[in-house]
Design a protein that fits this description.
Layout (H helix, E strand, L loop, with lengths): L9 H4 L2 E8 L2 E5 L5 H5 L4 E8 L3 H11 L3 H8 L6 E5 L2 E12 L2 E12 L2 E7 L6 H8 L2 H4 L3 H14 L1 H19 L6 H21 L1 H9 L12 H64 L14 H22 L4
Parallel strand pairs: 3-7
Antiparallel strand pairs: 1-2, 1-3, 4-5, 5-6, 6-7
């Protein structure tokens, strides 16, 4: 990650990723926080500040520059907020959830955005990709960045939503692997636990992404005068991306549910096959057991006891019956 260093106390320096001022889409200076408010009030100038897990002292310095609302500062100081858009006078406060795959689990971070006339402040908490790449990309397209803080807001939200897809693609690869295994053998306890974790992570990702639809809807509302009407198509494009993410999540959750059901069916099928085999062999073994039980009774007057060929006859009968039973069970697919 690249840092733009400033003349700030050591405790706050690492939290400031960038603090720059733009005009006509071009960065003209990296400035201290204490000058941000003055620059933002200049015509056709936009201050873009990026903060990483700032402490309260730094947030209060930013608050003083742009006259931010105290409630918004409290939310930005304490993460674990749900995605939302709040309007405080002429300023907007937006919360979005970021997602990354860490050690096979989806982990979430937060981005808090303060947007007002001539400035935008992003505050990142937890796992998330640096917005330095967003800054560098759009600095190479000054005609787009010249649209102002509204466009920067769009660029960050679009970047957040687009970063959901790599997470889903990695999960999709694992889901395909689960699908391939499920027809080979039933799931064991570890497989079921992993499937459950994936479904739960997908649900959490859906809950993180879907509220941004309402955020973008409000950003395209005519009641929100802070956003230029010309930016509305861009925010609707972000909404389309969120819908795509939602459809992908729902599809993967259904596949995992089907995989679990298929595993149960495969397991039941295998159990049924084993039960049939055991029943078949039990029926075959019951024949010699029955003969032995009958001729094992100690009675004086029993038929065929004094026959010269009685013993071979009984063995032949037992063998014949067993062979016939084996043939029938084999023909019916039980053996």
């Amino acid at each position: 990650m690249e840092y733009v260093r400033e003349f700030v106390p050591a405790s706050s320096a690492d939290a400031i990723v960038a603090c720059s001022v733009y005009t006509a889409g071009k960065r003209i200076a990296d400035i201290p926080i204490e000058e941000a408010g003055e620059w933002s009030r200049k015509k056709d100038h936009v201050v873009w500040i990026g903060l990483l897990e700032p402490n309260r002292e730094l947030l209060l310095r930013v608050k003083a520059q742009f006259n931010l609302h105290e409630l918004a500062i409290e939310d930005a100081e304490h993460p674990h907020q749900r995605p939302k858009l709040e309007q405080y006078g002429e300023a907007l406060f937006i919360v979005a959830r970021t997602a990354q795959l860490v050690d096979g689990r989806v982990t979430f971070g937060e981005t808090h955005l303060f947007v007002g006339k001539g400035y935008i402040v992003s505050v990142r908490h937890g796992p998330s990709t640096s917005y330095t790449t967003v800054r560098q990309h759009w600095e190479s397209c000054p005609h787009a960045l010249a649209k102002g803080e509204d466009f920067v807001l769009y660029a960050i939200l679009d970047f957040i939503v687009d970063n959901y897809m790599p997470v889903l693609e990695q999960i999709e690869d694992e889901v395909e692997h689960i699908e391939d295994k499920v027809l080979v053998r039933p799931m064991v306890a570890g497989d079921i636990e992993r499937l459950y974790m994936l479904r739960r992570d997908l649900l959490r990702l859906r809950n993180a992404a879907l509220p941004l639809v309402e955020v973008c809807r409000r950003l395209t509302s005519a009641d929100l005068s802070q956003i230029q009407p010309g930016m509305h198509p861009l925010f609707r494009d972000v909404t389309d991306h969120i819908r795509t993410v939602q459809e992908k999540i729902d599809s993967l959750r259904e596949v995992l549910a089907f995989a679990f059901e298929t595993s149960l069916l495969v397991g039941q099928s295998q159990e049924t096959a084993i039960t049939k085999k055991l029943a078949s062999w039990a029926a075959i073994l019951a024949v010699p057991t029955a003969f032995a039980g009958i001729y094992g009774m100690n009675f004086n007057d029993m038929p065929e006891l004094r026959m010269s060929y009685g013993y071979p006859t009984v063995l032949t009968a037992i063998g014949t019956i067993c062979v016939v039973l084996y043939w029938r069970f084999r023909k019916n697919g039980w053996l």
